[in-house]
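[AMINO ACID CHAIN]
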Amino acid sequence: MVALTVRKCELPEIAGLREQFLNEAGFQFIHNKCHLYGWADVYQFTENGSKIGYGSVWGKDNRQDRDTIFEFFLIPAYRNHASEIFRRLVQVSKAPFMECQTNDSLLAAMMFEHAEDIHAQSILFEDQSQTDLHPHGIIFSRQPYETDHPDEQGGYVLEKNGEVVATGGFFLNYNFPYADIYMDVPESHRNQGLGSFIVQELKKEIYKTQRVPAARCNIKNTISRATLVKAGFELCGYLLEGSIKTQPLIDLQLPEN
């Protein structure tokens, strides 16, 4: 039997493992920004000095906190021990909560095994088809735009008779190549198909940058969900939150491979 070590480390120490995680996953990882902006602590898992995985923790309500596990990766040879290793991460990090995307199969499995009070916070969307929406008299363009956000591409608008009737843009803080669309239509201009049209046009702008459009909305926002679907998106997962069950302390020993 060999002992597993779980220790807090710096992001560059697990960079190679993160690249493996993102390449294997092949989906938009919405918490990628936590690493970009220094909002997360990372923990490296080793066996006899060899790196076998990592976990990441951030603050789901306050960025200064480190109370929520949101990322968990193991190399394939150790996935049969995922439950035990996850429990060890919980003990070392002392995180009482966890979040996961349902299209992240490893962490989703840990969610259903180790958490309670599980609920969906957001719906995740991926691009499925190109649409051909053309609301009469609507012009799509980009205006000068100032932002303090280094990864925001904003300033896109819809105009009708010289009046701005919708705004939008996208963020580049997802993992490459994904870009996160956002849009807003004032209440006085809703129910005219403007939201779906600006999303359609934003998708085209994203593809021009060699990126792939992605989107999400609150689980309760049925209007945004319908807007995104009309613009060619389809549901690809949910963002779940849960409280980690209290578990006994363990001194984890793994069988020798």
In short: Residues 130-231 form a domain with the Aminopeptidase fold (CATH 3.40.630.30).
